[in-house]
Design goal:
Elements (H helix, E strand, L loop, with lengths): L16 H10 L3 H14 L4 H14 L4 H18 L16 H16 L3 H14 L10
Length: 142
């Protein structure tokens, strides 16, 4: 997969909008972090990392609202699926950084489905995620 990240300057890693959002969140400015991520989505909905981090922000604040949180992850997951060739059954290893946003969205979406008691659907998402990333090393990266 090729990661879409509007505003990223490959010559200046300090201007990474996801990093800026994470720094804002870590400093307690969740509204600022949310705005950066929403601006990324507005610039290009294919920015899967923005969807994943929006899900992470919401999950961290209100995990009991799994249905609302799941929307962020699901949008990223569905957009990512559309980016894959029809009938894709290959791997997207975690070691390739551009694959991580889709895998993060899948992981978050699966967790939300599990919280909602939709165990069959959650198992399907996790099963697909494991086929795509057999090393299963993203659990600690949520």
């Amino acid at each position: 997969m090729e990661q879409v990240l509007p505003g990223y300057d490959f010559n200046d890693p300090e201007c990474d909008p996801i990093g800026v959002s994470n720094d804002l969140k870590d400093s307690g400015d969740t509204q600022g972090a949310y705005k950066v991520l929403m601006d990324l989505c507005e610039a290009d909905l294919r920015c899967l990392d923005a969807h994943a981090h929006l899900g992470n922000l919401a999950f961290g604040r209100m995990p009991w609202e799994a249905r609302a949180v799941a929307r962020h992850y699901e949008v990223g997951f569905r957009i990512g699926e559309l980016s894959l060739p029809a009938g894709f059954d290959g791997v997207l290893p975690w070691g390739h950084i551009d694959n991580r946003p889709l895998l993060r969205c899948m992981h978050g979406f699966g967790l939300c489905l599990w919280h909602l008691g939709q165990f069959t659907e959650a198992a399907q998402v996790f099963d697909r995620m494991l086929w795509m990333n057999p090393s299963d090393n993203q659990v600690s990266d949520a």
